[in-house]
Amino acid sequence: MSSNRLDKLRSINKKKENSVTDKEALKDLVMSDIRNIQSTFDYDSLGIDSLDKNLLIDFEKGLLVQGKRLGEIAYEIGDILEKARAVFNRYAKSENDPSFMMWYQNVGLNKDQVSIFTKRYQLCLSYKDKKETILSLTDHAVKLLSNKKTPEIVLEKVLSGEVKTAREIKEANEKAISKIFEIEEVVDFDVFEKNSIWINKKNKEEYKVISLAIDATNSRDGLSVVLYLKNNKYFVRDRAEFLEKFYRKHNL
Fold first, then answer.
1. What is the bridge-based pairing of β-strands 197-200 and 246-248?
2. Which own/partner contact pairs does 141-145 have at CB distance under 8 Å and 24+ positions apart?
């Protein structure tokens, strides 16, 4: 047998060994994840025996681990879609060029699926330290969270872990929007007069309001925002959130 052929065989065997090692390492990692999961479900209230209780706990842990894997897969798909979109955009003949849509439909995806994959991916890029939290959200939760009408305060609650499920996001939205309407009923636009001074409730520092504006970003189009200034730096914040975090300084 020639030396080249022997080298190739050795290379193939080495790859097989590495593949086996990688699979074993992955299995150990998954098992470690499963062991570290702490169930919060009240199995004792079901009145079942210990064997079935432990069986259900194992099922729960297995689902959570697989859900984590699905989250990572969703992130990778979002990454691929965004990169593919960038390529198609380079050749688009108009803003509504259908080439990208035709391409993803050809691989079996629809508009809603692509929207959720890309929005989840974009959220992960915007909040890198909260990636694990974002990947654990359901598709419905991501869809609600990405809606331009969802107040910023709700997003903060989701990222902090205070709000987790789609139902909780919906309820938080309703409460926040209801609060916005209450605020708007009692707050006159004159309160945001140009060069008025506002104080941050948390750090007690003063900021100067420049004006009200309308956000034209696609995902937040039509949202009322406040443009304000401090130390020659301009800031923009959701109007309702601004009113929650600042109060106006009145001259005595």
1. antiparallel
2. 141/165, 141/166, 141/169, 142/116, 143/115, 143/116, 143/119, 144/169, 144/170, 144/173, 145/119, 145/169
Residue 12 has pLDDT above 70, yes or no: no
Q: Is the pTM of this model over 0.85?
A: no
In sequence order, which ranges of 94-238 are alpha helices (DSSP H)? Answer: 99-106, 111-126, 131-135, 139-145, 152-160, 166-186
Select from 135, 127, 170 the least CA-distant residue to 151: 170
What end-to-end distance do the CA atoms of the chain give, in Å? 98
Q: Which two tokens stand for residue 99?
A: 């080439």
- pLDDT, one tens digit per residue, over 112-142 is 999 999 999 999 999 999 999 999 899 999 9
Exposure string of 73-90, with b = 16+ CB inside 10 Å and e = fewer, is ebbebbeebeeebeebee
pLDDT at position 86 over 50: yes
**Contact of 132 with 123, CB cutoff 8 Å:** no
Quote the longest CA-to-CA distance of the chain. Answer: 98
DSSP state of 74: H
Give residue-wise pLDDT tens across range 155-169: 889 999 999 899 999
What is the spatial distance between Cα 246 and Cα 199, in angstroms, rounded to a whole number?
A: 5
